[in-house]
Structures are given as C-alpha cells and as structure tokens.
Amino acid sequence: MTTTEITVEQREKLEVETRDFVARATTIAIKNEIDNTQAATLTAALKGEIKRRKGILAPTKAALDASKAAYKGLVDLLITPMESSVDIITQKIGAFVQAENARRAELQAIEDAKVAALQAKEDERVAKLQAKAEAAGKPAPDIAPKIIPQRVVAAVTAPAGTTYTTYWSAKVTDIKALCAAVAAGTVDDIFVTGNQTALNGHAKIKRIEGEILPGVVGVKTMGTSQRS
After folding, report:
1. What is the pLDDT of residues 120-145, one digit of tens each?
2. Global pTM?
3. Three-state SS string across the chain, please?
C-alpha cells in the first residue's frame, strides 16, 4: 500500500468481519472436546487475522508514530522547559511560604505571651483595688479589667490569582513497626498491603497450593495459549 490510510471500502469490509468474529466468539459454547477444538481453531483464525490487520494498519501507524515523535520533540523543546520553570518557581514559593509562616507563627506566639502577661498584670491591678476597698470596709469599685488587645501576625498573603494549598503525605520509616502494630490490632490492616508482584514471583518459585509465607498461600490457575 502506498497510502498511509485504509480506504473506506476496506474499513467497512473489516468492520463487518469484526462484528462476525465478535459474535462467534461471544456465542461459542464449549461442552466437549470437539467444541474445544473448534474454539482453538477460531482462536488461531482470530490471531492470524489480527496479524494481517496489523500489517494493513502498519503504514498508518508509522505515519502517526512519526507525527507523535515530531510533536513530542516540539513539546520537549518548547513546552517542557516552561513547565519545569513553573515547577521550580512553585517549589520556591512553597518553601518561602512554609518558612515565612513558621517564622510568623513564632512571632505570634511571642505576641500572645506578651498579651497574656499584660492581661494578667491588669487583672492583678483590678484585684488589688478591689481587695484594698474591701479591707477598708468600702464598696468594691465598679471597675473591670481592661481587655488587652491582641496583635495578630498575619500569614503570608497570596498574590492575586495565586492560591496556597497545603498537601499531606506519608512516608514509611519503619515497616516492621507498622506491621507489628497491625498484628497487635492497634492499627487497621488497611495500612499494610502486600507487594503482589513479589508475592506472585515467590509463588512461581514455590509452585505449591498452600502456605508459602506466613499468611500467604499459593494459588494455581490455568491459562491457555494458542500459537498463531
């Protein structure tokens, strides 16, 4: 084929054949060895047809792959560096916001301590006046402690069009301690998931139906392969 696209006639013919193959595959019933042989024959025919169709579509795929490669090259040249620049600036902004807000939190704690000390001093002053009046047999003065205003240290303000978001994630630092807590029942087992890839690999080595590791059993299933 010299064109990179299949013709309309080819596509329509293949669509009809596809529906026929799918109907035969979905309705087939295997009840005996004859049915099983017919199913294997159909599987071989399907694989042969798939291979033939891939050959028909190869020029189209090659053209699309070339277009994708060219587009990816332009993206790598013109877009990716810009996105990386955004990531770099975002990380710097995040680091600044975190450090600055931590610094301001420390300042706020200092201000809160100052206000608390001044308020305590004011409360003590009023209490002394009331105690003095009481000792002299006079009515307690109708005064209340002044409320010392609190100075609020504002958090970092986001520029227009910018939003600061806090993200939380977890990092396992002691898997044995985590597993021990799950075993003890103090932590839900949802927090520990077996490495299925490693477990499947171990099962292939052990090749037994039964316990292959504490709490893990080997499971055998049958698969079918058909040479095209």
Report:
1. 999 999 999 888 888 888 887 788 88
2. 0.50
3. CCCCCCCHHHHHHHHHHHHHHHHHHHHCCCCCHHHHHHHHHHHHHHHHHHHHHHHHHHHHHHHHHHHHHHHHHHHHHHHHHHHHHHHHHHHHHHHHHHHHHHHHHHHHHHHHHHHHHHHHHHHHHHHHHHHHHHHCCCCCCCCCCCCCCCCCCCCCCCCCCCCCCCCCCCCCCCHHHHHHHHHHCCCCHHHCCCCHHHHHHHHHHHCCCCEEECCEECCCCCCCCCCC
